[in-house]
Amino acid sequence: MKNKFSNPRPSMLEDTDDGQLEDIDVIPNEEMILALSEKGYVKRMKPNTFNLQNRGTIGKSVGKLKVNDSMSDFLVFRAHDHVLYFSDKGTVYSARAYKIPECSRTAAGTPLVQILSLSDGERITSIIPVSEFAEDQFLLMLTMQGYIKRVSLNLFSSIRSIGIIAIQLVHGDELKWVRLCSNDDFVAMASHNGMVMLSQCSKASC
């Protein structure tokens, strides 16, 4: 019987480098929704949390917010994405998207201070999900006093847990706004007085 049906093994068994699995190896790279509030509460939700609705409906609440809090960002991303968190002090932090605790739609979310090494009084003003740190992509930063800076995205591919300085700020200034762009993109910036300036991303200094 052995001689009749014996065949060579079609595949080879090999040792891996260390045999250790990381979290990311067992977490599906699924699409998710990220919600961030002004007071720094963040949560991750499944896309089917929000269904397509007809015209004339009142919509769905994003969730329970703390007193005097409001929603600041609502983004679609994938679980394996790197999420860049930019603070008002010009510091950027990074964490994988799946590190954000998954919550129900009605939950308030998790304080960012439980995920990031924020200093006292430091606030996150922009979040950027990144799937790939492409060399032709840039981050455009704008401060409260009107300073603008363009930085190559790939410079942020490795960030320490305590964060790194993304932009040097003058005394009294704050980082207010960060967006992903390419050199061919145009960006429109509006003031509180209703004035709008349109400029190509490549015109901003590095």
UniProtKB/TrEMBL annotation:
rRNA-binding recorded as keyword: no
InterPro entries assigned to the protein according to its UniProt record, in alphabetical order: GyrA/parC_rep (IPR006691), Gyrase/topoIV_suA_C (IPR035516), Type_II_DNA_Topoisomerases (IPR050220)
Pfam family, one: DNA_gyraseA_C
Organism: Glycine soja
GO biological process: DNA topological change
Keywords: Isomerase
Statement: the UniProt record of this protein carries the keyword Transport: no
Protein's recorded name: DNA gyrase subunit A, chloroplastic/mitochondrial
UniProt-listed Enzyme Commission number(s): 5.99.1.3
GO cellular component terms listed in the entry, alphabetical order: cytoplasm; DNA topoisomerase type II (double strand cut, ATP-hydrolyzing) complex
GO molecular function list: ATP binding; DNA binding; DNA topoisomerase type II (double strand cut, ATP-hydrolyzing) activity
